[in-house]
Amino acid sequence: MLQNELFNNVIQDFNAGYWELYDGPEREVWSEKFYDSLGYTKNELEPKIDYFLEHLIHQEDVELFRDNFFSYRRNAINFKQHIKILDKKGNYKLFRCATNDELPVNIKSKISLVFFIEIKLEPEQDITKDNFYYKETAQMTATGSWYVDFQERKSFWDFETRRILEYADDYIPSLKDSANYYAEDSRQQAADLFFNCAMVGTPFNTEIKMVTANKREFWVRAIGKPVYNENKEIIGIRGVFQDIDEIKKKELSLQKSIDIIASQNSRLFNFAHIVSHNLRSHTSNLSLLVQLIEDIDDPKEKIGLVKEIKQISYSLNTTIEHLNEIVAIHTNKDQEKKPVKFQDAFNLVASGIGQMISMSKTKIKTDFKELNTINYIPAYLESILLNLITNAIKYKHENRDPVIKIKSYSKGSKAYLKVTDNGRGIDMKLFKDKIFGMYKTFHYNKDAVGIGLFLTKNQVESLDGKITVESEVDKGTTFIIEF
């Protein structure tokens, strides 16, 4: 029996009974106070957990108490819980059930103890309304508890863990299947966390993706810490996890919106810079020429300067047209998307530049078998193909005819378009950050304007896509569009 005198005095004051739990064979010793609080004598009850679960505890408390009790006995997982127990008069009494470490008084005992402290209710109090059980709390917060026992090489889940992961109530978790409880892209993260916790005692508190028995992926907040024995050796890991899928998806959606806004602001800043820089250069030249014309008396010289004004006017008009194209991209991005076949878009583009393809002896190889249709704005897809194909022809290698390979494919839920050529290539060390800039050219072609790739990038990004480039001088260039 208990040897802690201080605690014995407290127990008397609180009218508390207790069980002493013994191993090998497993058995319980119930205190006299436990019998007295229910009005029974020792001869009238069988002091065994099976008898208690079958005859004394209220049915709605059986499942949770059974899970808690065996987790405590076999894995030293402390708990506290409200339960209702049948007394001799046939009425249910409410008790606060708690284990050693969950009590306010320190108990110096090598024996596992479970205490039952009776709660006195006022007549008008309703037990079911005034007491929030652990089970209800776990369900309301979608929080499951678990324990991994390294000595027994077993895993233990509570009822809420099984419910969240959509497994049957009688499902027995296995360490061998532990990787299957996590989404494929989160398994390495889970392995690292558990390894560090098991080997060096590093606790964790993280967000990770899990997968249910029905293959539904969802986000959880997982918290775990090591369990030590008396020799300070790690013998297991215990923890909880909470379903935060809805919150996490909102967070990811918000972050995506922030990224889009940041991207739009960046494009707006670049656009403002382009307008300011390019238009200012034209207007400055015009102002200078007008001043020169006013200062020159020779009619012939004036006529010569007028011709230059015409050229500047033409350049200014071209720049404004390019800027209008950029504005149109962001104005038209809300156009209705519809299924577009890559082959149809390519055929339309190829027929429009047929003469250019023929004269340059360009060979174009297409492969749209894996992904033949995409939900997109048709004009954008045609424009993207047009710019990438004409660029490949314009900047062909001087020692070989152009060969362009165009392939559409999917990877996971993403759709991609890959355009590869065997042209001159681009020096990525020099021009990596300038490839998609407006009026940026990397070769010395007379007809190079530097607007095509800028427009292509804006079209792709206006619909939340991404374009990347890989290139090597004298070998060719590959553009990859992620829609």
TrEMBL record:
Q: Where are the transmembrane segments?
A: none
Q: Which GO terms describe its molecular function?
A: protein histidine kinase activity
What range(s) does the Histidine kinase domain occupy? 274-483
- Can the keyword Coiled coil be found in this entry's annotation? no
Q: Where is the PAC domain?
A: 204-256
Entries under PANTHER family matching the protein: PAC DOMAIN-CONTAINING PROTEIN, PHYTOCHROME-LIKE PROTEIN CPH1
Full protein name: histidine kinase
Q: Whose protein is this, by species?
A: Aquimarina atlantica
